Amino acid sequence: MPDDLREGRIVIVGASLAGLRAAETLREEGFTGSLTVIGDEPHPPYDRPPLSKQVLLGRMAADAAALPMRRDPDAEWRLGVRATGLDPVGKQVLLADGESVTYDRLLIATGTRARPWRNADEAALDGVFTLRTRDDAGRLTERLAAGPRRVLVIGGGFTGSEIASACRERGIEVTLAERGPGPLVGALGGTLSMLAAGLQRAHGVDLRCGVTVTALRGNGRFTGADLSDGSRIDADVCVVAMGAVRNTEWLAEAGLAAGPRGVACDAGCRAFNMYGIVTDDVFVAGDAARFPHPLFEYQMLSLEHWGNAVTQAEVAAHNMVSPEPARRPHLAVPVFWSSQFGLNIKSVGVPTFSDQVVIAQGSLDERRLVAVYGYRGRITAAVTVNMAKWLEYYQGLIETAAPFPPGPGAADGRPLVAAFPIPSNVPDPKGLFHGPTVALTGYLPDRRLTVVRPAD
């Protein structure tokens, strides 16, 4: 590694939001060395949230979702080539085209991909889609524009619910199948899941909860699906929205603490090796990262959030070119948003890190509210529905570990809508079709480790 951290060779694997913002920040922080960004998609970095919203509604072309650059990062872009391995001793990233790229410091920002349907033959039927990439969105939008009779959405998380919303806005009949008790339950718990279920049904969604899809039917072209309750759904299009898979397989032999839950790192974004020792030349940011957060009992958080990808990438880039005393931690409170069925849903904190919830403002009936979540007597999250102006206030309560439930009139001078908190009913994600957008996990080794003892 060069003596001056602002020189040398930095490689970023992942050419999406986190990779781009990290590259820009490196230059803003004074890095003058060689910078290479590797991405498996052929496109320059683009924004993913519009894909399930404006793009599916036909209001934006899929190729118009490019991310604006804050500045030219003066990088070598290796697009359309996948990283297949990492040699931490030789400090090389191995590529699918047989080449390798040497680094002094490495940032892993490989993010996630859509979880595919479990049966490969059924997944290959014409009319079966996932939605994660720009190309996915373009193909699905084209099929929706053709006016299918019915769309089947498998998975009631945010992506699945937004797809169902877009279909109904287009006037397309849609069935949403969710193995769990309701849509969004894995992200927001049982109370707001009831609101989401009522909202979907009120907008004409054929919502099927507590059932599994046992098979996709068709002879070359998708025609329908069988459900575990014995019913059948006839449809022309199926969208598999069963959560995401973290792109960490290429690190299997790299000796890092990397697995299905992501790459474990410290609060400064430095990756851990498989023995729990922090590295000083490998960093991680974005959806692929697992990091400790003091507000959530130092559990390891894995987040699939736009804002987290930006802030973590900026922290990682700063720390890659800064000496130890000048490094800073990534302690941002998670924030995310969704737009569906005419509602604007915004969240701060981690709703799944809770045991109770209280409606602090508004009401479920009005579909305009603030739900505040608590764990062991302190506030850990807040979710607003068409009341986003209060989000900043509750973020301050989360950051200061304010007691739960919030005091009467804490936000707007009015008494709490609900006099008593109720259980937040956050289910085990293993029982859901849709994966959580926030996962809190203790460290679970993905393979048996060899115990290394010093020689006598």
TrEMBL record:
Keywords: FAD, Flavoprotein, Oxidoreductase. GO terms for molecular function: oxidoreductase activity, acting on NAD(P)H. Residues 336-406 form the Reductase C-terminal domain. Signal peptide: none annotated. SUPFAM superfamilies: FAD/NAD(P)-binding domain (SSF51905), FAD/NAD-linked reductases, dimerisation (C-terminal) domain (SSF55424). GO terms for cellular component: cytoplasm. Its cofactor is FAD. Pfam families: Pyr_redox_2 (PF07992), Reductase_C (PF14759). The keyword Nucleotide-binding does not apply. It comes from the Bacteria. Gene3D superfamilies: 3.30.390.30, FAD/NAD(P)-binding domain (3.50.50.60). Residues 9-313 form the FAD/NAD(P)-binding domain. InterPro entries: FAD-oxidoreductase/Apoptosis, FAD/NAD-bd_sf, FAD/NAD-binding_dom, FAD/NAD-linked_Rdtase_dimer_sf, Reductase_C. This is Pyridine nucleotide-disulfide oxidoreductase. It comes from Planotetraspora thailandica. The gene is hcaD_2.
